[in-house]
Amino acid sequence: MAVPAALIPPSPLVPPPPISTPSATTSPPSTTSSPSPSLAPPSGPGQTLFRSELLATSSPGIPTAALPPSKPVYSTPSPVENIPQNNECKMVELRGAKVASFTVDGCELICLPQAFDLFLKHLVGGLHTVYTKLKRLEITPVVCNVEQVRILRGLGAIQPGVNRCKLISRKDFETLYNDCTNARLVGSCVRHFG
Prior knowledge:
By secondary structure, this protein is an alpha+beta fold. The protein is about 30% helix and about 15% strand.
């Protein structure tokens, strides 16, 4: 049974003790370099609370030296360069349907939300599931630039209120499609025979 919040005694907030570093106490401040922010909390009546050990780490409580070198998990790639060649849209045939595509750096890229709507939405829970699958498959879709999004909205490839979109190559779409259909087959086999 849950205890009402009023019965739990509040714990007082105690500011962390000031951190003393050898370099800060033994060397005089430099007048030629730019000022660096202080790591110690301000003293006095207007004290602020913060965890200074987080300044030197990339994740809460995990020192940077303990982390393996890798690319950031949630890095968002830059959008496609906004030049006329990248903004020429064509309707191409994909699995018997017409989808919007752009040619970027010589590679044909199709509109992922449109392809999802046409081919994948009956196979998976939603577009979020597709992005999870793309991460697992190590497929990084290309982010549309503003002009490409405007063009796709005008064509009806994406909904009017959408202001972001991603593009994917045909090869990567086929990999994604096969993963979605195989996952559906495995799931239905488990339901029928499990």
